[in-house]
Queue: 4 jobs
Job 1
Amino acid sequence: MIKILDDKLQGLRSHIDEIAKDLHDLTIDIGHEQLRQTVSELRNRINEPFMFVIVGEVKAGKSSFVNALLSTGKEVCKVAPQPMTDTIQQVIWGEKEEVITINPYLKKITHPVEILKEIAIVDTPGTNTIVEHHQEITERFIPSSDLIVFVFEAKNPYRQSAWEFFDFINTEWRRKVIFVLQQKDLMAENELPINVQGVVQHAQKKGIESPQVFAVSAKLEQEGNELESGFLPLREYIREHITGGQAPVLKMKNNISTCRNLNERIGKGVADRRQQWKADKNFRKEVTEALEKQELKSLRQVAMLVENLLGGYDRITIQKEEELEEGLSFFSLLRRTIAGIFTKKANAQQWLEALAKDLDQQLHLELQSKLNDNVADLADSIQQMAKMIDLKIHQSETILRNNHEIFSEIAERRSMVMQELQETFTKFLNRPENFSADQLFPDKKPGSASIATGSGLAVVGIILAAVTKLAVFDVTGGILTAVGVLFAGFTSAAKKRKILEGYQQEIAKGRGLLETELSGKLRIYVPGIKEKIDANFEDFDAMLEKEEAQIGKLEERQGGIEGRLAEVERDLN
């Protein structure tokens, strides 16, 4: 085996080690313990001997195979009639023979045997016993292995558990694999080729283009029958393809492949986070657009309400102006004056008072009718604003789920933010004070008694009715008082023009005040509700901003590692 790399390969190996360190730092930063351990194991092995992982069912002869392959004259892996390997055994070089228990599923065995300076062996329990505890194998050893040896009983190489484990590690890691049919001495010569060909075909069906299958007998090898044991072609394959010639390059390529696999998994996780962020960003955009659209709709309802009120106002005040002008004509006044002297009919002053009172009654009836017709539509529009957002919150798309392979904690954190948003918004909708209009009437409490009995959206109509009534009747009350004072000052026909002009001025002033007062208050109220709704998304917006920054950094680091891996791989070719 080549023990010393040339300067170029030394530099490339150092570069791979640096990349693996950055990958290790990345796994720490994303908080993924399993990936961190896997990369840590990879880093520890970049400069270690070639590692072979031996896999197969109980009593397939794995331990005997290892002892024969190493050919040390020692029983490196214990062999007995009953199953001995109930744990994973990592066999490595050491200055003395020692067994170190790492955990209930892993033992480290050291031997002062020269070949173990070149090859480290991982002897595993039977595949029919390790499926439940395959984590140690798949996390610690498979990613960093240089060769995986599947050992089958030559008599029956089709046992399900071994092939199921092959499917698992081949799909996940795509390492170099060979197949060994052990105990060939127990088979008839004409039957062995059938099973060898059967394994070849089975492996091809599972995606191995050119399966390497070796039939061996550990018993014959240890008895010194090297020609018949089948170990010569196996060792030649290992020397040519694993430990010699291009072996250091292949080992580095394996390291690159493992780094890339881990980095791609992180990249896929980051891509999932990016996709979730985009979905959340789009959801937030839809919320903003829905609020703006519904706000415009509500403001159009405001404009319609004000327009209808002003229309009713104009109709009544113009009608009364016509009555006033006609009643103030010379003959009308003379007739009322004479009639007042000789009969009980109303004189001119009394008529004006009656006109003012009639104006008061008709104006209030007209405006109340217009309010009743339009406030409900406006209230419904504002309620829809809140209901639409509530629906969008509950229909928001979840891509990054709590069982995500890489970012389950991020998914859980987002899930909590969304749950809190739903709960907070539900509480918001149920609180009457969120839809109150006290700021519009600091010295009054419009509809406070009714509001106390309502809840959340249910009070919107009450609030609007109170707001509009107070605005309308405050304005019209002032107009009618001014008109009453104006009429009370009437003493002669000479003041006819002054009365008409005064009436017109008061009506025009009242109209303008009604428009600005009502429109102004409602145009404050509607955006105010929108802003209160939008304020519920403060924590969500903070999450989006933080997530965007974190994703950007992760993408940059993950992409940088991928680029450097590709560069080293090009230099190795």
Job 2
Amino acid sequence: MFIWYLAYTPVQLTSSPTSGLLLHISSLPGSYGIGDLGYEAYAFADFLHAARQSVWQVLPIVPVGHGNSPYSSPSTFAGNILLVSPDLLLDYGLLTEDDLATSADPRPQTVHFKQALDLKHKVLSTAWRRFSEGNFAELKVEYESFRVKNGHWLTDYALYEAIKTVQNGSAWTEWPAGLRDRETTAVADFVLGRGPSIEQIMFSQFVFDKQWTALRAYCDDRKIALFGDLPIYVAQDSADVWANRDIFFLDAAGHPTVVSGVPPDYFSETGQRWGNPLYRWEVLKSRDYDWWVARMQRILDQFDLVRLDHFRGFEAYWEIPSTEATAVRGTWRDGPAEDLFESLERHLGTLPVIAENLGVITEGVTRLIDAFGFPGMALLQFAFDSGPENGFLPHNYDENIVAYTGTHDNDTMVGWWTDTSSTQNADQIERERQYCAEYLELSDSKKNFSGSELTWKAISALMNSSARFVITPVQDVLSLDSSARMNTPGTTDHNWAWRMQKGSLTPEIAAKLGMLTRETHRARKAN
């Protein structure tokens, strides 16, 4: 049974027009194979402050899963230890200079997930040993407080990770039956003699939480809201499903009986079979959605704003029998809709939620969004395939919108313009690009304008719209091409690895962005 949640004081959405940037923590510069919560994160917050930006959006900060994706995590509650800063561990006195002497990354242009994970495990192991053996009285009080507050998920996650390590990384459904089914005797026998390794996993989560909390406080001092991302579904091979089997459609061995996805459409004849286990919403309803309340509380403890990915699934979702290889043979099922969000608001107050409402959206989804006043999303890259009535064109935005040039799932603006792999025919591509050039008032000949002109006029068009929020990926601020793309949906290779180069965000860019922000009345007041 899931343990009940703690109290939470809600954050209220601002009604004033504002703007910010999208950059995941892993994409920051740094010396340890991946961006982290150390000095470069604070430097980026300083850049946002100098550029008069009020929002920093990131991707999920949970551990990465299949394909290094933060959207396929082994835990929706845990933090990603890849993002822990060794430099800050040095500041805490948990590492020495010698511990980091051979840790510098000679290739900082991209994320090196395996090398970075090996390094983080090594330094966290060293930090844990010093912590457990040393005199860190104040830090130990903080650690115990963290354990008490987060015990409802932390113990399960630490056990899951410890067992998974002993089982050579195999999925929990492949573990010995006693551990798979969380039998009391089998779990107790496993824990016997493994206490320190389980404690180290908890300690690593504490370190992540301590570093994240410090960064959030730094951003708060500069009036920068942190904007997070919460996928609707969780991964099958996760501590979430292993520890809460009763709220998912699973068979006796823990395998899903039905899975998530979306039906066939214009873009895919077989639809998309995502494979996540589906929720038993009636069971959750009978418990007043306690697991979802705890999940939402956890992310609101970390962020000021939250994007709910695949929002449509809360109103109705596509159920696919797990025996099906594609998404063709599925059934629409009713989601929890208003009932879930009414429960969340009873327990947590007004929700600072952004609804990811891209794709085919029904009247029911629109009614659900409107009922709670959640802002929706608009992407400029989707605006030019039809005429002036296209809802993604900036002149058609209403106030309750978060406007983007593109998201982590899109190409950069420069990459979008130069893309030659589109499934559209050449004439359609030409019409789309021509309309874009006219709408943004680019140079007369598309051959003569620069990528910088394209991206900055795109940003300006969004800034001058009625949208309450304008969020621009840093790649577009830097006018980068497709090599800087973060993710290509439907693929598993070469995603999530882009990193910004140190010094890319110059004072000149900050001044340019700050001026545009002031001119469009989106700037926060100077401190």
Job 3
Amino acid sequence: MMRVYNVILFAIFFLVNTHAAFSFEDGKREYQVIRQGDVIGSLVITRSDNNLFSHYQYSNNGRGPNIKFHAQVDSMLFPTTFEIEGLSLLQTPIKESVTYKDGVLEWRSRVESGKSAKRAFYFPTHSTPAHLEMLAGALIRDADASLPLLPNGQAYIKKVASERVNNGNESKLVDLYLIYGLQFSPVVIWLNKEQSLFAVDEVIERGWEENGSRLKRVSDDLLGKLDQEIAEKGTTVPENPVLLFNGRLVDVRKKQVHANMSVLIDGNRIVEVGPDSAIEVPKTAQKINLKGSTILPGLWDMHVHIRSNADGLLNIINGITSVRDMGGDVVTALARRHQFSTGDLIGPRLFLAGLIDGVSPTSTSGLSVSSYSELDRTITMLAENGYDQIKLYSSFPSELVPSAVSLARKYGLLAGGHVPVNMRQDDVVKLGYDNVSHFNFFLLNQFGDEVQSKTNTLARMLVPARRGRDLDPSSPGVKRSIALLKKHNVALDPTMVVLEALFTAKEGRVSPALQSYYDRLPFRIALAAKSGGLAINDIELQQYTESFNVLLKLLGKAYEEGVNILPGTDVLPGFEYVRELELYKEAGIPNLDVLRLATLGSAEHMKADTYVGAVEPGMLADIIIVDGRPDEDISALRHIQMVIKDGKFFDLAKLSKSVGVLPALNAINFTKSGAINN
């Protein structure tokens, strides 16, 4: 379900006077798209005379782009015209064009249109990784290695390493560059000596694939060191007890709010909580006057995919101190969990779900099984490595679901995830799931058997979008499904924010989740916020929006009947979380109930409520300070002033800057000598 902010904005064209032409010659270059060891697609770049062609496609989990690009270029590869067409990640049609005449670049797409004569790069909305080599080449040849972007922003490049790669008896040097200014973390790109693309993200030159894992280790190690420097500079560990006073405390256990409250922290623990006048303050304590701001436990996002160190940092600056990672590379996840725990890297408390799928053309990359013995080995491995849950995916063999649940129980793991193909949500609830991800599966449960055989494809989103509006929230089937969830104590991880984007987003319009942050985001992320959803015209948009409104009614009904809700996003880390909670409010869930779900309720589900999830004596010091009253207006959670995790205080302004985000104006910076209100 993950909306892809990392793959849809690769095309770059330049309006600069370059120092030298690209040296690579006419011809065709081929690349493989590889995800976790599996070849899932290809990239082809062809140059002939003054024409440049690119074809980029991959398919994974029933989704993937198929994009063709053609440009007419001059001897400097300057595009005098270009056209992009094909299908987006969500299989919606795309078409984009640019013309250059009399010194003016004019572009047109469903997301952006305009013109400019300034010296700058223009980013089309949809294209291929091939165009990153154009940006890299232009930046390398620029005297300052830095160029402005259109419609806004600035990019610069830095060479950081060289590595020798091998292909049989053939050997060559490739250079590692980091491109800054496009997204939260620098773009990692490997170039051949003539500045042609060798590898970027999941793309690598055909025939040289065996070098991919080693090059990734090199770049990961380098970025890891940079991220450790950010952590060291952006974190303060107090030497003395710290008193937070004159705050409004939300007691999430009792769902009450108390004014003029103090919280005393010593080391990584909360040692005392009470009225300002009742706290015995140690003489050595540092005191922070909260001036009526709201004290809350750190927030929980119960559906994330931590794909980079920056993802961890983005959660922290948005007040999310605990997350459930719903599937990724096991070795990387374990290393990251350790580094987040020690403070070597900045990130939330990490609870891990191992994603297990079947073996089929529609499978996602990950842990794949086709037999009981493979399943047993996989779950045993996850348990031995301290995982908290198994997550079954859409192509998981339905006949193995009972065994998967049984093995999870054997090792004390939670079981849940997607509803596997050829099954209904009611089926997995009866078989022992602890939680079900994505509320579209609730809708699919209400439709005919012909739908269930397609739920490992885009049909699992398209069918609910098209047919959900016709569903009666009071129908017997709905009542039966809600009653089953309640009877078996199965929680819903609805990811409403991603469904809202898929069902209601329109190209060219900023998604509701990011409207409040739009001006603070890096260029590529901001542009992705206007990339649209499943609808390809206004009629579909209206229909899909009506279906989403039915989803909201169903969610409210489920909660009213006592079904547990686990707030999770499955989208852009940190920044879309508050919208998830706002949607709960729109579904009719009271604000204090929403705050409990986002904190103690999630901790209870993960069996961690004895040490995190509430601001109480003896709990670990995972605390956020909010400028406003989220108990009255959930949207106030966007105004995070201070974040404390495990007793560590974070410099939110400095950390925001490190990931290319303009900092919030109300942040409180804590230093060992005291607190400074910015």
Job 4
Amino acid sequence: MEQFAPACPLDILMLPLTFPSGDRRRWLLAVALALLACAGAARAEDGYALWMRYVPADATSSGGYRAPAGDIVAPERTATQRVAREELQRGLSGLLGITPRQRSAPGGRAFVLGTPQSSPWVAPFSRDLDALGDEGYLLRSTRIGGHEVVVVAAREDIGVLYGVFHLLRLMQTGAGLDRLEVRESPAIARRVLNHWDNLDGYVERGYAGGSLWDWHTLPDWQDPRYIDYARANASLGINGSVLNNVNANALSLSTDYLRKAEALADVFRPYGVRVYLSARFSAPLEIGGLRTADPLDPDVQRWWRDKADEIYALIPDFGGFLVKANSEGQPGPQDYGRSHAEGANLLADALAPHGGVVMWRAFVYAHDVPEDRAKQAYSEFVGLDGAFRGNVLLQVKNGPIDFQPREPFHPLFGAMPRTPLTMEFQITKEYLGFATHLVYLGPLYEEVLSADTHARGSGSTVARVIDGSLDGHALSGIAGVANIGDDRTWNGSHFDQANWYAFGRLAWNPRQSARDIAADWVAMTFSRDPGVVTPVVDMMMASREAAVDYMTPLGLHHVMARGHHYGPGPWVDGGPRADWTSVYYHRADRDGIGFDRTSRGSDAVSQYAPDVAEGFADVERVPESLLLWFHHLPWEHRMASGRPLWDELVHRYTRGVRSVEAMQATWDRLQGRVDAERHRHVAAFLRIQRHEAQWWRDASVAYFQSLNGRAMPAGETPPAHPLAYYVSLQFPFAPGDGR
């Protein structure tokens, strides 16, 4: 029976008051399950459990696996073995309403966990595990000693834990277990969250409260929430966490703070999550007492070697450093006339004896305002291909500007065959309405990962670049800028949890479907009822395009308000840098709009492979979704719809607002099928989103109309206020600003 079913009390009343002879146990189990379901219906949910709610399920929705005894045959000698067994016990208790028993051998229907080394019952499956690697796993329904079992087998303990979470996902989503045969291993080696958390507890571009890490009470007090954070990551196969902001404070590398990081590493270790730190390049000056941070200076090299030795003495499985250098005022090797490769190699050499890596961010731009900001990273890094040490990953944002609602894929993907590239996605929605706008990012991730760079011919997708398969790299990585804070929902809203979830699933396998991932998430988070899953998934899949429409249609980009990026600001001009303004990017005037990146303009198209560049440069072939990214066009340019560009632009803005209204209507129809507390919360946020979508539409239309002097298209409602009203709005305390 479904949790939160309004008829739940009647289900109990309809149970027989007597039971047939010999069926007492079955009757008692039915009563217990009904009571559990009713308790769930009455219990308010605040989102803390994420997608690991493990609510009671009937035989159909639990995959038909009947385990009345709930036996678990599993080793428990290591910490990871224990948490794998405990997670399965927790899941079975919730899903099936049973108390699992720990046994030494199968004696009926049972779950068998382990590695060939830890369990004699798994040893016969050793050959099946050879191709799955250290993190892979096998799930199989079979018979051992005449008994029906579900085996979760792996070469290493962490693979068993990942397999347990996969098994529980199947049970939560109603997949059958009778003919279970699953072989899984990750496509990408380093699957990492980047936390932009400051040491004072503030989260830059964070919209879910303060930092999860209480540096003041660490290392002595380890909040139990740290364990749940590690569980959530392990459930997705995320195996790394960068604890501090890329705009790093050198104190993060001091001995006192390293001991705090050590405490977190100890909590995370059983769940396979390695700790990383953002390293400030100038740390040798700021906390080391040196007079320089020049990467070629012997004393500087010695300081970093000693620091690496100190870190690994405390955290033997330390993952490595993330570095933002010579970008937005951060110190770096260019301060000393050195290259990014020389800076990265300094740290890589210090980490190499310990097996650590450097993730060097390619988000850079020059002190002088460039002709085209979109060209900066490519211009600075492509000539360094092959100059980096073997333990350096170049971390590249998904697009060439900065996490916009829509960008073309970054031209560096496919352009550096001798350098492993890490994808950097944003999970937090800095440019997509913060936590209050429902925007499922799975389609954005999928769009980028499936984009064909044509770097080595057709089929050279971005996914193949970052998983190493295109150019034969064993080292691979993907990073997500997290929006995880101390809010009870973890992410600031219930639907923002789906973006953490989608990132983790795609980090494990970048060829998965965003729709399928959304369906799993809805089933585990809200309900397995198809009457809930289908409309909510449809709503989620349309949400990103809705946001693009009401914020940045037709390839517009970076038209947000200055600094905090809350709300529209297409009029933003002036200030210290032209490329921090909106007018720099949209270039609208009386005659037209858009940034010309063809050979007649900045020629940014030439940074892509010829087949891609030709398509982007051709106004007839470029996708309309990127039209104004690559072309400056007159307002009367005829669109595929037959409308002039101006009419189409206004239509897209309005369509975005209407899409949010459709989301509201869908959610309203689900009242009573989703628990009341979460339904109210989401409904309130959708009202905020509807109001702000209209604000985006009206402010943007009013501004562009002030330039082109054109009448509103037929059937379109004029903005509610004059342009001056929208320009006058101020938000000095918008959350998540960089301070």
